[in-house]
Amino acid sequence: MRVLDVGCGKGELSARTADWGMRVTGVDFSLSAIAAARDAHSGRGGLLDFHLYDVTATRSFVPAPEPVDLVVCRLSFEFVDSPRFMVHLGRWLKPGGVLHITSAIADRMPYGVAHRGIAIARLAELRDAWKHVTVYRLHDNLVGIALRG
Ligand SMILES: C[S@@+](CC[C@H](N)C(=O)[O-])C[C@H]1O[C@@H](n2cnc3c(N)ncnc32)[C@H](O)[C@@H]1O
Q1: Which residues form the Methyltransferase domain (predicted)?
Q2: What pLDDT shows up at residue 116?
Q3: Residue from 29, 55, 103 to probe ligand 1 pocket by mutation (most atoms less than 8 Å from CB)
Q4: How many CB atoms lie within 10 A of CB 9?
Q5: How far apart are CA 25 and CA 49, in angstroms?
Q6: Is 100 helix (H, G, I), strand (E, B) or coil?
Q7: Nearest alpha carbon, ligand 1 atom 8
Q8: Residue 144 sits in a domain of what CATH number?
Q9: What Cα–Cα distance (Å) separates residue 16 from each residue in 3, 93, 95, 105, 109?
Q10: Which of 40, 98, 122, 129 is the 20 to 30 Å CA partner of 77?
Q11: Which atom of ligand 1 lies closest to the CA of 116?
């Protein structure tokens, strides 16, 4: 199974997912995050790699990610959610593939940090746009959202 970890940061989720036997590419537009991810997880062998990549860019000088079965956005969807990302996503996800989002619910967050969560209205839009939607509570205000189709 191939996985794309969008906004992978220091690559913790990418590495954990590779430990489960999946082939994972972590992408982030932060040079320091990619450097830290490579540094932290370089010894793990062929199932894991990290690339500098802006997932909302109109054009990129580096190759786009290969199509994958699963795209994960842990605490990053709220930053990359844009029409451009959705267009890219359509190409990166294989037919039947899943987008998994881990996010806080913005409406339950304190004023001033709500941009770090996904709004309930946006969640409703995603429910309308995807055929299969599962939302489950992780802990506190954090939810997992699995979207397919
Ligand atoms: C809150 S951090 C989450 C990092 C990681 N997913 C985690 O759970 O630890 C959000 C990450 O998204 C990345 N990011 C934001 N916008 C991005 C974009 N357009 N393209 C790629 N990465 C982006 C940031 O650089 C940052 O590393």
Answers
A1: 3-97
A2: 87
A3: 29
A4: 19
A5: 5
A6: strand
A7: 74
A8: 3.40.50.150
A9: 12, 20, 24, 24, 28
A10: 40
A11: 1
Q: Amino acid identity, residue 61? A: F
Count of structural domains within the chain = 1
Q: Where in the sequence is the domain holding 108, given as residue range(s)?
A: 2-148
Residue pair 27/11 in contact (Cβ under 8 Å)? The answer is: no
Cα 76 to Cα 95: distance, rounded to the nearest angstrom:
23
The string of pLDDT tens digits covering residues 89-111 is 999 999 999 999 999 998 888 88
CB of 74 sitting under 6 A from ligand 1:
yes
Q: What is the pTM of this model?
A: 0.95
Question: Which runs of E-coded beta strand occur in the chain?
Answer: 2-6, 23-28, 48-52, 68-74, 93-105, 117-118, 132-139, 142-148
pLDDT in tens, 7-60: 999 999 999 999 999 999 999 999 999 999 999 998 877 899 999 999 999 887
